[in-house]
Amino acid sequence: MTSLAQQLQRLALPQSDASLLSRDEVASLLFDPKEAATIDRDTAFAIGCTGLEELLGIDPSFEQFEAPLFSQLAKTLERSVQTKAVNKQLDENISLFLIHLSPYFLLKPAQKCLEWLIHR
């Protein structure tokens, strides 16, 4: 491999790494690792949004997490190309969501939301 090719490989964005697209097993709360590897982003997002809708029926205060974690913008957000400030805000939103979600962890809607966050 040439020096230029090595440099370009080091600069490549993580989401453009082909090895990440062909994983045989992935982490999941709801599915076994092999089945989870077959789930695409749209499906995981739909599962998470369904869980959030169900949680909103239990506790309407979950609405504050819809825009930052369960919106179309959140679905397409690539952390690796964001600024430190954006990533810090996202980390804070996830942390607050997990704290807010903790009393509901054993409920299926909470697990659906967690599946989306794990997938991303």
From TrEMBL:
Q: Which GO terms describe its biological process?
A: rRNA processing
What InterPro entries has UniProt attached to this entry?
A: UTP10 (IPR040191)
Query: Where do transmembrane segments lie in this chain?
Result: none
GO cellular component terms given for this protein: nucleolus; ribonucleoprotein complex
Q: Does the keyword rRNA-binding apply?
A: no
Q: Which UniProt keywords apply?
A: Nucleus, Ribonucleoprotein, Ribosome biogenesis, rRNA processing
Instruction: Enumerate the subcellular locations listed in this protein's record, separating them with semicolons.
Output: Nucleus, Nucleolus
Q: What does this protein do?
A: Involved in nucleolar processing of pre-18S ribosomal RNA.
Q: Which organism is this protein's natural source?
A: Pan troglodytes (Chimpanzee)
Supply the name of the protein: HEAT repeat-containing protein 1
As for family, the record states: Belongs to the HEATR1/UTP10 family.
> What's the superkingdom here?
Eukaryota
